[in-house]
Amino acid sequence: MTSRTVLIGLDGATFSVMTPLMERGTMPFLKSFVEGGVQATLRSVVPALTPPAWTSLMTGKRPGEHGVFDFFQKESPDSLYLKFASSDDVRSATIWSLASDQGKSVIALNFPLMFPPPAINGYVVPGGWMPWRQMRLGCYPPGLFDRLKTLPSFNPRELALDMKLEEKALEGCEQDEYADWIRLHIRREGRWLEILRYLMNEDPADLVALMFDGVDKLQHLCWRFIDPELRPADPTPWEQEVIDLCDEYFAQLDGIIREIVEMAGADATVVIASDHGFGPSRDVFFVNTWLEQLGYLAWSSENEVPEETQPRLGISQISRHVYQLDWERTVAYGATPSSSGINIVLPKTGDGQVQQAYSRIRDEIVAALKDLRNPVTGEPVIKSVYTQDEVFAGPFEALGPDITFEMHQGAASILRGDEPIKVRDEVAGVHRPEGILLASGHGVRAGVSIEERSIPDVGPLLLALLGASIPDDVSGRMPLEIFDETHRGQFESSLRFHPATPPPELAGAPTEFDEEAEATMAKRLRALGYIE
Amino acid sequence: MGTSDPRVFDAVVETLGELARDWEYGEPVTPETTLFEDLGFESLDLVVLGTSLQEKYGRLPFTEFLTEIGERNADDISVGELAEFISMHARTSVTGDPR
Strand A453-454 vs strand A497-498: parallel, antiparallel, or unpaired? Predict the structure, then answer.
C-alpha cells in the first residue's frame, strides 16, 4: 500500500474522556471516524511520559532501545548532571528518517525530540519544550520559519509552549487564570492547523503527522471539569465557564481532525494515537524527602534548602540536586518529577563490596516503595516498581533511572517536603499508561474494537502503510488485525524488512571507578552501615 | 579549558542579534545585553540555545555552566558572558575548523 498516510497525535488522549465527548455530541466527527474504523487501547511505555512515549512511536522501540527516558537526560550513565533531551538523544532511526531514506516525503509538526531538527525529505516544526524564541532554529528546511511568518495567524509565541504557563498548569494556578489559559490552547491548535494547511497546499507529503498537546495540558489542570465522573453536579458560574471552555476546546479539535482527514484525501489511511492516557490524582509523593527519612539521602547544609509546605512537584527545580544534596551522605535521589525515577549513586556492575551494596540498596528501596502507604487513607501509594534492567533492557538502559515507579493516583515531587506524602486540595490529572489508537482508511475494518496494542507497534504500522521497508530490530509488532480479511493477506505479503543499522555506542558507558572514587563511595557506604 | 577565540565570541553575539529580530527587541544586541532582563529569556531558552550552539561549536560543558549559574543564584547573564564561555570551550572555530 502506498497511499498517503496521516498520523494525528493527541497527547494524553484517553478513552475515559474521548468516548463521553463523542457520545455527548461534542466530537461528532471523531465518533463517525471510530464507527468507520478500528479502535484499541494503546499501552504506553514506562515511564508513561511524552518524550519516551512519542519516541517509541517514532522508532518502534522501547526507551532502553532508543535512549530517551525523560524531558531531561543524564549526560552519561554515572553523571549527576542532566541535560535537555534533544533529537541527538534519539539513538535510533525514526519513521521520519526511514520514510525519507526510502524516497517518501514527510511533514512532521509539533512532535517532541525534533530539535535540533533532523534533515529529512520534507518539513519539520518541532514541538515539546521548544521555546518560541528559538523556533527559527528548530524549523527545517532553513528558510521555513520565514515562509511561515507570512501566514496571517503565525505567532511563534502561541505556537510554542510558554514554560511559565506550563508550570502553572502542572503546579496549579489561580481561578482567574484558567479561562485565558484554555483559550490560549484553543488558539494554539488552530495555529498548528494553519501551518499544516499551508504546507499541504504548497507541497503535500506522503507521511503527514501533526501532534496536538492541548489535550494533555487541559487534562492536567482541568481534569475535574473534564472527567465525567468528577464534573461538579451543580457548578458555580466560574466552574461552568471552565467546563464550557474545555468543551469548546474539544469541539474545535473535532473540527480540526475533520479538516485534516478531508485534506488528506479519500485514499489516505489515517491513524490517531496518543502517547499515554490520563487519570485523576491527589497524592504528591516527595520522593527525596522519603529517601531522606530512610537514610539514603541528605540535603546539603551549606545550601539551605527550604521545606516545601505545598504539594508542588518542582518542575522549575530540576538540576538543583547537584548542589542541594550532600553527596558524601547521599546514595539515592530523584532527579526529575516527570521520570518517577530514583537514581542510585553507586556502580551497578562488578563484584566488590560497593557493587554488592548497590544491589542491596536497590532491593531495599524497591521493597520500601511497595510497602509505602498513604498516611491518611492507608492505601498503597505505589502501583508498580521496576528496576533498570527489568524495564529498560537494551543498549541504552544505563541512561535510565535505577528504579522507576508508577503511582496509583499521584505524582512525584523532587522538592524537600515537610512530609513524604501530601494530598492536593483539588484533583489534578496525571498520566496513565492506557492511551488510544484509532485507524480508518482503505482496507481497515469498520466499527471494530481490537485487543490492546503497544505504542511501539504504531511506527512499523505507519511505515508499512507508506509502503516503506521496516528495520528488523523494532520491538513493535504489526497490528495486522486492523485490516479486513480481504486486505490482511495482501498487506502481510507486502511487508518488507531490512537489516537495521547497529545502534551507536553509548558514550560514557558505566564508569570503571578509580581508587579515589571507590574510596569515597566506600566511605559513604560505611557511614550508612552497608560495608564494614 | 582553552583560550578565548574572538571570532567565536563575535559569532555568538551576531547569532543572538539575528535571533533577537524575531523577539521584537528593538535595541542592538551587544556583549552587555542581558539574556533574562533585556531579551526576556526563560531558563529553558538558555538550555535550548545551548543545545543549538553545541551543534555549531561541538560539545560544551553547558550543563555544568547552567548548574553553576543556578548555584550562585545569579540573577542574569550577559551575552558577553555566554559568548566568552563558548569561545573558551568551543572545539570548532567560527569557520568550522577543529581547534
Answer: unpaired
The pLDDT of residue A313 is 61
Higher pLDDT, A516 or A382: A382
Which regions in chain B score pLDDT beneath 50? 1, 93-99
- Phi and psi at A297, nearest 5°, equal -145, 145
Nearest to A337 by CA among A359, A311, A362: A311
State the Cα–Cα distance between residues B96 and B99, nearest whole angstrom: 9
Other CB atoms within 10 A of residue A104 CB: 23
Looking at residue A400, its pLDDT comes to 96
Termini Cα distance of chain A: 66
* Strand blocks (E) in A101-242: 106-109, 122-125, 207-212
- Substitution target from B63, B66, B68 for chain A, most A beta carbons within 10 A: B63
Alpha-carbon distance A272 to nearest alpha carbon in chain B (angstroms): 29
pLDDT in tens, A253-297: 999 999 999 999 999 999 999 999 999 998 999 999 999 999 999
Sole residue written with cell 522501547? A62
The 10s digit of each residue's pLDDT in B55-78 is: 888 888 887 787 777 766 667 888
Q: Name chain B contacts of A323, Cβ cutoff 8 Å.
A: 67, 70-71
> What is the DSSP-derived secondary structure letter of residue B29?
P
CA–CA distances in Å: residue A79 to residues A245, A349, A443, A511: 44, 16, 50, 10
Residue A386: name the closest of A13, A41, A63 by CA: A63
**Model pTM?**
0.91
Alpha helices by DSSP H, listed for A60-171, are 63-66, 95-101, 135-138, 144-148, 156-159, 163-171
Give yes or no for residue A53 having a pLDDT over 90.
yes
* Residue A179 burial (CB count, 10 A): 14
Cβ distance B45 to A134 less than 8 Å, yes or no, reads yes
Pair A212, A261: CB distance under 8 Å? no
CA distances from B1 to B5, B46, B68 (A): 12, 21, 16
Residue A357 to residues A105, A293, A298, A304, Cα–Cα distance (Å): 52, 19, 18, 29
Query: Average pLDDT, stretch A177-184?
Result: 93
Query: How much is the ipTM here?
Result: 0.78
End-to-end CA distance of chain B: give it in Å, rounded.
Answer: 12
